[in-house]
Design brief:
The protein has seven helices and no strands. The protein is an all-alpha fold and about 130 residues long. It has one domain: Cytochrome Bc1 Complex, Chain D, domain 2, CATH 1.10.760. The chain is globular, with a radius of gyration of 18 Å. The N and C termini lie far apart (about 55 Å).
């Protein structure tokens, strides 16, 4: 009985570890419609300021200062990523748009909260400055 219990616990542990690793490396599947999108007002100071304000309202509680270290981050199952990292900066703006507003899994959909296109792109502009 002890051997069975030990084996069962080992299997449960291995499965939970595998699911954690799988969730961490799950790539985003971004539709072509978004991949081809281009930022509309690139780098303009007013857009970046607006993006920062909106980021603080909608994103900071999970993503913190951009390193995925906000107050809610520790309750997430999926790593939030680092917006200051070169890997994030190399992601096309249309992909960032999809990831930020359409979302998936623990990343909620923000299409109904941030409805204005200029505001959405302002957030992307701000993310690009981190």
């Amino acid at each position: 009985m002890k051997k069975f219990l030990f084996a069962a616990l080992t299997v449960v542990f291995a499965m939970s570890l595998f699911s954690f690793i799988a969730a961490e490396k799950k790539p985003w599947t971004v539709p072509a419609k978004y991949t081809s999108m281009k930022i509309q007002k690139k780098g303009d100071a007013a857009s970046i300021a607006l993006g920062k304000t909106l980021y603080q309202k909608y994103c900071k509680s999970c993503h913190g200062a951009g390193k995925g270290d906000g107050p809610k981050a520790s309750s997430m199952k999926t790593p939030l990523g680092d917006f200051t990292a070169a890997a994030f900066k190399s992601i096309p703006d249309g992909n960032k748009y999809f990831m930020s507003f359409v979302g998936r899994d623990e990343m909620p959909n923000f299409e109904k909260k941030v409805v204005d296109e200029e505001e959405r792109w302002a957030i992307i502009n701000y993310l690009n400055t981190l």
